[in-house]
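Bug #77: duplicate submission created two jobs. Keeping one. Sequence:
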Amino acid sequence: MKKGMTIFSLFVLGIFLLAGCNSAGDTKPQEKALATYADGSTEAYALYQLTDHNIGTAKGGVVAKEQNLVNVYVKNYAEPGAPTSWSPVPQVMSSQRLTILGGTWPGETAPDPERYTEFAVSPIEGKTFTADSISVYGGGGGGNNMKFSISIGTKDDFSDAVEILKVTSNPKNTMKLYEAPVSATVKSGETLYIRFYPWYTDNASGKYLCISELKIHGKIK
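Kept job's structure:
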């Protein structure tokens, strides 16, 4: 009997220690539950981490589609420079570094409508997604004169585009979290497009638009 009690005690102790180790070693934050609203809708969002080549993740009944690149390309995934100042500091300090095809910016005073990167979000079948905010870390790498704007639209040809953010002060090696309120209703079968238009005010190469943690937030019903 005494021997049986000893084995049982060791078994319980082992479970306790294992649980403690798992708890101590698990530094992943708990995922926040999606909110529900009085009108019967539920919180929903798409998140593009933009720290590697993985496509965005989506919660609550929306679908995050693959990023589209037009006359720009992804150079790599890293901080804009060393050191980089983040405001506020994210969990993962990395970004997608985008530059112009050919590598040399022509020197412009406004964005080129034929040069952009595009993200897209749709509701699942039978649902309507209402976007209420778009947030992203944005910054410049390699120089102080990188600018960018963000526009959204729901038509395939982007003829209904609305500019929601324009950043013209963008010191190099600085990443700032921007958030823009939006009001966009996306019905079943439709898509919300989000386009980033970068430009550089000098004729130069080795200059990058750096973005990370793009989040399209809203509710679905």
